Amino acid sequence: APLLQVKDLRAWYNESQALHGMNFDVRPGELVTLIGRNGAGKSTTLRSIMGIVRKRTGSICYEDEELIGKRTFQIARKGIAYCPEERAIFSLLNVGENLTLPPVLRQGGVPDSELLKQFPNLRERRKSRGTLLSGGEQQMLAIARILRTGSQFLLLDEPSEGLAPVVVKEIGQLILRLKAQGYTILLVEQNLQFARLVADRHIVIEHGAVVDTLSAEELVSDM
Ligand code: ADP
Ligand code: ADP
């Protein structure tokens, strides 16, 4: 059975409709990307799942429970974690302090010592303030912080954005490790090379609707 099932999802910003009937699902342990042009509705899809975009209709079922109508904190408590594109690091706090401020605390979260084993760079820079971190370190920190909640389903909005190729590779390796650990991941990605490298399946969005689903191999031959 799918972990997440989205049916006929429509979403609005005030009077402006951004999603026009999205249909897709994500199975447990899958790593799926949302790809498509700028403005297609990828970020809005993640924000709708999280309840950040509140004006939405249709159905978003997670573990057979309807999320539409629920508040963001209720959705987060179910074990869905969201890493927005803007990374949301507290620039005046250091790495360790940033880690203690997860969006929502759940029971059974990952302890810091355990968490930092996966992020040797961050462990070294534990006392560095957010502003002093590189873009890649900030992205790692943003991901580490959502892992701390103990959530098993991760929504990641363009983690590769604005990063040098060598750093993109590190982020890719991290995401593959998370997949190997059993996390289910829905990833917004503009960088198709990166998408190809990490994902099992790609959902192609145009004008607020799903127009195609591609396997890992199909994305290669299609581009
Ligand atoms: P993508 O992530 O695929 O680039 P978005 O989900 O950001 O696309 O945007 C989908 C549509 O919604 C676009 O037309 C965009 O201009 C609009 N949109 C996105 N965010 C907002 C917002 N905060 N207020 C109003 N319109 C928005
Ligand atoms: P993305 O496509 O990855 O969401 P954008 O560059 O479209 O990024 O959007 C950057 C920011 O501007 C987002 O916070 C988004 O919500 C906001 N935004 C995008 N389109 C609109 C719009 N038409 N009106 C108001 N805000 C918007």
Automatic annotation (TrEMBL):
Keywords: Amino-acid transport, ATP-binding, Nucleotide-binding, Transport. The keyword ATP-binding applies. InterPro entries: AAA+_ATPase, ABC_transporter-like_ATP-bd, ABC_transporter-like_CS, BCAA_Transport_ATP-bd_LivF, P-loop_NTPase. It comes from the Bacteria. The keyword Transport applies. One of its GO terms (biological process) is L-amino acid transport. GO terms for molecular function: ATP binding; ATP hydrolysis activity; branched-chain amino acid transmembrane transporter activity. Belongs to the ABC transporter superfamily. This is ABC transporter ATP-binding protein. The lineage of its organism: Bacteria, Pseudomonadati, Pseudomonadota, Alphaproteobacteria, Hyphomicrobiales.
